Amino acid sequence: MGASVAYWLTRMQPGLAVALVERDPSFARASSALSASSIRQQFSTAVNVRMSLFGAQFLREHGIAFNESGYLYLGEGFDAAHAVQKANGADVALLSAAEMKRRFPWLNVDDVKQGSLGLSGEGWFDGQNLHSFFLGSARKQGARMIYAEARTLRQNEIVLDNEALRCKHIVNAAGPWAGNLAAGAGIDLPVRARRRTVFVLSCPTKLERCPLVIDPSGFWFRPDGEVFIAGDEPAIDEDDLPLEPQLAEFDEALWARMAHRVPAFEALRVERAWAGYYDMNLFDGNAIIGAHPSRPKLWFINGFSGHGLQHAPAAGRGLAELILHGRFVSLDLSPLSFDRIVERKPLVEANIIG
Ligand SMILES: Cc1cc2nc3c(=O)[nH]c(=O)nc-3n(C[C@H](O)[C@H](O)[C@H](O)COP(=O)(O)OP(=O)(O)OC[C@H]3O[C@@H](n4cnc5c(N)ncnc54)[C@H](O)[C@@H]3O)c2cc1C
To answer: How far is the CA of 309 from the centre of ligand 1 (A)?
Structure first.
C-alpha cells in the first residue's frame, strides 16, 4: 500500500517530495510478500468489485503475469451478491451443480446447490512483480526510501529511531501492524494481525481448468504451477500469534475436507507451508481509506482483511487523489472512509476468505 501510494503521488505530481519509511528491506514478514496473490470480483460490497476490476486492468496494462482461471465459490444463496457484482461490471456466472460437474468433472458437488464462477478478470497474479513495479517506479519517479522503524506518528512528524521526519502529510501503510502505530497516535484503528497458514501441496492427478475454489466449509485451494496452494479458517484466531505455519492444521482439519471436495486430493502431500498476517479489520472486514476525522493530515490505508494485494492499485490511486485533490477523482472510495468507524456504521463485506 505504501509503495502504491508513493507511486501514484509521484506520478500525479512529479517532483513531489515523498519518503517511504520501511523497517525491513527484505519485506520478509510483509503481507504483500506472503499473500496468495489472487484477485476476484466476487465481493458483496460494490466498491470492492470496482477496485478489483481496476486491479485486473492494471495487471494487464503493466504486463504483470496474470492467470485468469477464475474463482469458483461453492454453496448457496449467492443471488444478492451476484446482483451487486453484475451491477458493478463483474464477469461472473451462477452455475447449477450439473453445470459445475460438466465443467469440472474432478469436483464433488453432491452436497452443493450452487456455484459462482468468475469468467474473466479473476485468478492469480505475480504479486512480487506488482510490489516491485510500485516500489521501483515510485523510486524512479523520485520517492526516497528511509530504512527505519516508525516509532510514533505525531501531528507533523514521524518519530524514527534516531530522528524525527517532518512532513505535511503522513500515511499509515503499516499493514497488519497499522493498529499499533495508530494507537500510539491516540487513534483506535480496528486492524489486527491475524495469522494464516498457506499449504503447498503436490498431487499426482492434474485438475483440468482448475480455478481458485472456495469451499462452503471455509477452505480454499488453487493450482500454483505444478503444485497447489490451500488455506483454511484457523481454529485459533488471536492477534499477533507467532508467524509460524501451523502444519498440524492440515492433517487435523483440512485434508479430509479437501479429499471430500476433490477425491483425487486423497493423494495430497504437504511439500511445505508458510504463514503471513491477514490485516484484519475487526469492525466490518473492509478497508479503511482516508483521514481520521480529527486528524485531517494523518491518512490511513489499512484493514484489507486478506484481500488487499489486488486492491493496491485502486486504493493507492484513490488515496493519492484524496491527498492531492481533496476528493476521489477516478473511483469513489468514500464508502471506505474512516468516518464509518467513528460513527459506528459498518459496511460489512460478507465474502472474507478464511
Ligand atoms: C496468507 C495470506 C494470503 C493472502 N491472499 C491474498 C490474495 O489472494 N489476494 C489479495 O488481494 N490479498 C491477499 N492477502 C492480503 C494482502 O496480502 C494484504 O491485504 C496486503 O498485502 C496488505 O498490504 P500492506 O502494504 O497494507 O501491508 P504489508 O505488505 O504488510 O506492508 C506493511 C509494511 O509496513 C512495514 N511496517 C510496519 N510497521 C512499521 C513501522 N512501525 N515502521 C516501519 N515499517 C513498518 C512492514 O515491514 C511492511 O513491509 C493475503 C494475505 C495473507 C497473509
So the answer is: 8
Question: What pLDDT, on the 0 to 100 scale, is given for residue 354?
Answer: 76
Residue 279 CA to ligand 1 center (angstroms) comes to 7
pLDDT tens by residue, 247-274: 999 999 999 999 999 999 999 999 999 9
222: pLDDT strictly greater than 80: yes
C-alpha cell at 324: 492531492
In the prediction, which pLDDT does 352 show?
84
Is the CB of residue 233 less than 8 Å from the CB of residue 196?
no
Any atom of ligand 1 within 6 Å of the Cβ of 277? yes
Q: What is the pTM of this model?
A: 0.97
> What's the average model confidence in pLDDT over 58-75?
98
Return the SS3 of 96. strand
Q: What pLDDT score was predicted for residue 353?
A: 84
Please name the residues in contact with 21: beta carbons below 8 A apart, sequence gap of 6 or more. 146, 148, 150, 158, 160, 165
Q: Which amino acid is at 33?
A: A
- Report the half-sphere exposure of 76 (CA within 13 A, side-chain side): 6
Residue 251 CA to ligand 1 center (angstroms) comes to 27
Question: For residue 155, what pLDDT is reported?
Answer: 84
Nearest ligand 1 atom to the CA of 38 is 8
Ligand 1 lined by 177 (C-beta under 6 Å):
yes
Measuring from atom 37 of ligand 1, which residue has the nearest CA?
Answer: 174
Q: Contacts by 342-346 with C-beta closer than 8 Å and gap 24+?
A: 342/292, 342/293, 346/283, 346/284
Q: What residue's CA is closest to ligand 1, atom 38? A: 174
| Per-residue exposure over 51-86, b if at least 16 CB sit within 10 Å of its own CB, e if not | bbbbbbebbeeeebebbbbbbbbbeeebeebbebbe
Q: How far, in Å, is the centroid of ligand 1 from the Cα of 338? A: 19
Half-sphere exposure of 85 (CA within 13 A, CB side): 26
Q: What confidence tier does 13 reach under pLDDT thresholds 50, 70, 90?
A: very high
